[in-house]
Every structure is written in C-alpha cells, then in structure tokens.
Amino acid sequence: AQSVTQLGSHVSVSEGALVLLRCNYSSSVPPYLFWYVQYPNQGLQLLLKYTSAATLVKGINGFEAEFKKSETSFHLTKPSAHMSDAAEYFCAVSETGTASKLTFGTGTRLQVTL
Amino acid sequence: EAQVTQNPRYLITVTGKKLTVTCSQNMNHEYMSWYRQDPGLGLRQIYYSMNVEVTDKGDVPEGYKVSRKEKRNFPLILESPSPNQTSLYFCASSFDRDSNYNEQFFGPGTRLTVL
Asked: Which residues of B touch A98 (CB under 8 A)?
C-alpha cells in the first residue's frame, strides 16, 4: 500500500529565503510522485512530477524536487521565496504507473512574510 | 480550453435532502475521480472511474454514490446528506495510461455545507 507523509503542516519563510517542503513516501513498487499547489479558493495545479526519469525534477514557478530512493523522499525546494508562493502544497504518490489512483499527503501551508 | 468543471461551486443544504454535484471534462479522459478535502486530512478519494460504466470505491465511499454513463461526466450523489459530509469536494480526470505527460486535472471545487 502506498502512503505519503508531509512533515510540517505550516511552514513560514521570509521573502527571498529558501523554501523546503518535506515529503516522504511509502510504496511497494517504484512510485510516481507528484507535487500539487492549491492557491486560495482554487483547485489543485500540478507543480512537477517524477516518473522514473531524472531524479531531479524541475517544475513551474522555479520549484524543483529531488527523488531520493534511499531516503524515500521527494522534498520540494525553491531557492528564493516570493509572496505569490503562499499557498497549500500537496505531495502525492501513485503506484499504478499512471497519474490515476493518487494518494495525497495532508498538505503543507506555506506562508511568505516580508 | 481544456478543463474540468463542477457545479455548483457552493451549496448549503439540510440533512437528508438528496443532492447531486456535477463534474464534466472536455479532454476525453478515461479516468475520473472524486475527492473530499478536510483540514488536516488532505485529499481523500471517494470514488473513481476507469471508464464508462466502470466505477469503484476509494478510501471514503460511505454516504456517496457515483455514475459514469458518459465518458465526459461523473456526477457525485449524496442520497441523504449528513453534517459530517460538510467538506470541499474536488473532481479530477486524467488519461489512464503510462506516460511521462500524464497528470490529473482538477476542477475548481465545490464547497458543501450540510446543516
């Protein structure tokens, strides 16, 4: 069975600081991993995904994530936070080899302060 | 424009009054799914459908029904809503194939309050 753990339900950073959102997964097969972002009062939007190609994945809005099999992690980073990055971020895993049947983490709300 | 639409966006109802939340996608996706989002719990899958007339339970199916008579539509039915079904609901769709370009597309959400 697959599962996702996101450490820290709330993360606060200063504008310009490094963003690091943590995600650890559990999967019985090589997983597909996703990060989604949810801006206030909106649906979820795909940030990036890992599908067994390059372990360092670049996404939209300057975000990237690195798949580390030995640590079962897929942490999301951005070198310099912007006020517009304030949102809720969800990590998700799929064992089916497709984007269907996703299991989501509980989410991390990112706050960006001046 | 490729999109997933949901209606209504907001709904306040009373316990026991049947309701339907519609979901439609225009991308010819095989796979469709319903999630509910609750604070601290993330998104939990209610039901999903791999194709027309093929539906299956997700992680929290109790109190919900779905149907998939057409490829583009996947309505969520609450026969007798209860206050614990007050939540934010999302419909999503994707191709069900192994592809590096595959992703789930989400609707804008339906905020349901059951009094």
From this structure: 31, 94-99, 102
Q: List pLDDT tens digits, range A23-48.
A: 999 887 778 899 999 998 888 999 99
The verdict on a CB contact (< 8 Å) between A46 and B104 is yes
Q: How confident is the model at residue B49, as a pLDDT?
A: 93
User: Tell me, what's the pLDDT at A28?
Assistant: 74
**Distance separating alpha carbons of residues B83 and B13, to the nearest angstrom:** 10
Amino acid at A47: L
Long-range CB contacts (within 8 A, 24+) of B63-66: B64/B34, B66/B34
Cα A111 vs. chain centroid, distance in angstroms?
15
Q: Are A93 and A103 within 8 A, CB to CB?
A: yes
Q: Provide the pairing of β-strand A10-14 with A108-113.
A: parallel
Chain A residues inside the 8 Å CB shell of B42: 6, 90, 104-107
Please state, as a whole number, how many other Cβ atoms lie within 10 Å of the Cβ of residue B22: 15
Residue B84: CA count within 13 A, CB half-sphere: 5
